[in-house]
Amino acid sequence: MNRRILVDVGMLLSFLVLLDYRLVRNTGHEALAVVFFLLFLLHTWFNRQWYASLPRGRWNTDRKLTFLSDILLLGSFGAVMGSGLLISHTLPTGMEKAPLLAHQIHHVAGYVMVIALGFHLGLHWNAILPRLERGIGLRKIPHLSLLYKILLCLLAAGGIYFSFYYSIGSRLLLLRIPSARSMPVTLWTFTFGHLLIISLYAAGAYYVQKLLRPSKRKSSRT
What is the pTM of this model? Predict the structure, then answer.
């Protein structure tokens, strides 16, 4: 369990740093991408039962939502890695003059991964939270439920703020951001800001899933 948590945290942190090329430059960006890919392979191995379980069981609303978020995450990951191989300056797969489309796919797919990762975490939160509580002893904290709600509100507010601050919508649509170069960018503020953005989408996915469950129960009774 601890190894799983370490791998997942490592994937999240390395992904956040990879989002901005300026923070680590080309060599660091590509080296960290290799680390991220290896951690992804470990994550896939630890969760290999998910692939084996796909043909089994009922496909209810929860399962469909989770499957769609996982496909979006895997698809954006594949697009990032595939386009990254084409535009690499270090690997032999890189093209000397890679087409602009490859750069655009790499850029947009990276920010699609931000949203998809938020959905992925939110829809799997009921499984992730008990692991975290056991792993780091959160259950010993008094009034834990109230603290969760306060923390969620703070994370959502921070996610909304940094979504506008870093112009996430414009980046997804490849629109020009006039103030991009003047933004103060440090490793800590960038990583923290995008972690809050992921948390915003995770909270949204979690509560959408929660709202759909009672409606399904009611419909099954009628």
Answer: 0.85
